[in-house]
Specification:
The protein is α+β, with helices and mostly antiparallel strands and 510 residues long. The protein is 38% helix and 21% strand. The strands form seven sheets. Strands 15, 16, 17, 18, 19, 22, 23 and 24 form an eight-stranded mixed beta sheet that branches. Helix 11 packs across helix 12. The chain is globular and about 60 Å long. The model has no long low-confidence stretch (mean pLDDT 94).
Length: 510
């Protein structure tokens, strides 16, 4: 047997490939960006012809950078976006662009149509999905009603897991349980597609969905010579089913036991708590998903933008920091957080930021919500504005934790992954706001690691998920909350909630 596993994270704004040894250590990595398109109000789309070449190039570059013999690679696993909708014709060609998970074109009309066919309680009990604009349900209805020709021609309603596995050479279309759970079509209690949802709600036969596999890291094909040339993966390398990127993150963060909480703050934000039972949130705010291949469930809610808000702030207001970074080699984000630490204070000196740049998901569902600054005065500094952005993101993540606790889900500590985990300032802020320990891991690239671990299980490197986590997932640092900052953050969070409540219902759709 070889020595290495490849995990590829197909994210929203770009993809990352990591090469791991069996102990979870990175030996090579590469990142490639690709665009999103915004063809109309609330619309977010992507093109396969942008994504596939980036996946291949990232994979090939990571292997070259690692310096390893590609023949030592045992298997490849995929971490993919979940929630985007793809329509494929009988030849596997895309009939239209992907409708992205951030897309909010479908709203009340589509939800009302769903409720005319199934009660809200039954919908939530079957799918585990809150009914709203953030998951596939409303998008499927929108496509059926607004693009009937494409809907009729579609031979497969695809998830990104099944589509991109096929691009690498899978012998058919296979998706995983966590991706299916985000498709608003899954019987999440019983780990299978729901024929009631497909047939009665979406008027779609089961044959238009990929094969749903619950087997951890199932081998679904092998790398061909042609794909080997494009990706650098060795001919014959196992192609293995991975999972939704957030479930890969939770798995790569060690989320295999009941009660473990893994928070991701990246382009997308979420907090997953592992549960041995498919419990439901009485308020119907939290998503219940199958934890693919692990044998339990995850309970979550999410942010549509999370760290994307900080990236937006950098790109819109951070010309000085970007120029300074280009001159000194320092990360512009670090320049910003250093200024926050020096020139601002917990609570951002009264400045409040609502980070809803693509609608409010999570505990405050409102597709029309907008990003908003409030509370500025002549004394407000740029550092206050920047700090308010980070605090606003953390407050939305705290909102999710509070919703989980309101549903009697205990959260004792947070394992943090994603871009925020790379910032000591941000990690301490989150610990202080939540007043809970924040734990960091050997690698912050837990999406790639989770995909690699799935591939390792399917290929016999690890006995099971617990064995994989025991060998490859290690906690390396802990940020303990500073009680001296608790009062200031509690007041700032209350101000944040009041700001949203005052504006809720007054946001306009544009």
């Amino acid at each position: 047997m070889g020595k290495f596993l490849v995990g590829l994270d197909e994210g929203t704004t770009g993809c990352k490939t990591c090469i791991f040894d069996f102990e979870g250590r990175i030996v090579g990595t590469d990142y490639r960006e690709y665009p999103c398109y915004y063809p109309g109000p609330g619309m977010v789309e992507q093109k396969s012809e942008d994504i596939t070449p980036a996946l291949f190039a990232s994979c090939k570059s990571a292997i070259e950078k690692s310096g390893i013999d590609p023949k030592e690679i045992v298997a490849f696993g995929l971490s993919s976006q979940a929630g985007p909708v793809g329509l494929l014709d009988e030849n596997g060609k895309m009939l239209r662009n992907w409708i992205g998970w951030q897309d909010v074109r479908a709203q009340k009309t589509e939800c009302d149509e769903i409720l005319s066919k199934i009660s809200h309680d039954e919908y939530y009990n079957i799918t585990g999905d809150p009914l709203g604009f953030t998951l596939e349900a409303a998008r499927l209805i929108w496509l059926k009603n607004n693009e009937p020709e494409n809907w009729k021609k579609a031979s497969l309603v695809s998830t990104m897991q099944d589509y991109f596995l096929k691009e690498f050479g899978a012998d058919g279309y296979y998706t995983d349980l966590s991706s299916a759970s985000r498709a608003s079509s899954c019987d999440v209690n019983n780990n299978r597609w729901s024929e009631k949802m497909l047939n009665e709600v979406y008027e779609m036969p089961l044959s238009k969905r990929a094969e749903l596999t619950t087997e951890c890291g199932r081998i679904v094909g092998h790398i061909s010579p042609e794909i080997s040339e494009k990706t650098g993966l060795p001919t014959g390398c196992n192609i293995c089913v991975g999972a939704h990127d957030q479930n890969c993150c939770s798995f790569g963060g060690g989320g295999v036991d009941d009660g473990t909480a893994v928070m991701v703050i990246g382009t997308f934000g979420s907090c997953f708590v592992v549960s041995d039972t498919p419990i439901r949130d009485p308020a119907k705010k939290l998503i219940v998903k199958g934890n693919h291949g692990v044998g339990n469930w995850t309970i979550e809610a999410f942010s549509n933008t999370a760290a994307s808000s900080f990236r937006w702030y950098r790109d819109t207001f951070g010309d000085f920091e970007k120029a300074e970074g280009a001159k000194t080699g320092e990360d512009p984000y670090t320049i910003m957080t250093n200024a926050m630490d020096k020139d601002s204070a917990p609570g951002s000196n009264g400045v409040t930021f609502l980070p809803f740049l693509q609608g409010a998901a999570g505990a405050r569902g409102n597709a029309n919500a907008k990003g908003t600054f409030l509370g500025m005065s002549l004394g407000s500094k740029k550092a206050d504005m920047a700090r308010a952005v980070l605090e606003g993101i953390c407050f939305e993540m705290a909102d999710i934790v509070f919703a989980e606790e309101a549903a009697d889900i205990a959260v004792k500590a947070i394992r943090l992954t994603g871009g925020a985990a790379k910032s000591p300032f941000w990690c301490q802020m989150l610990a202080d706001i939540l007043q809970k320990p924040v734990l960091l891991l050997q690698t912050s690239e837990t999406g790639c690691l989770g995909a690699a671990l799935y591939a390792g299980i399917g290929s016999g490197v690890y006995k099971d998920p617990h064995d994989a986590v025991a060998r490859a997932v290690k906690i390396t640092k802990q940020y303990d909350p500073n009680p001296e900052n608790a009062a200031a953050y509690k007041e700032a969070y209350s101000r944040w909630v009041e700001a949203f409540d005052a504006l809720n219902g007054r946001f306009y759709r544009a």
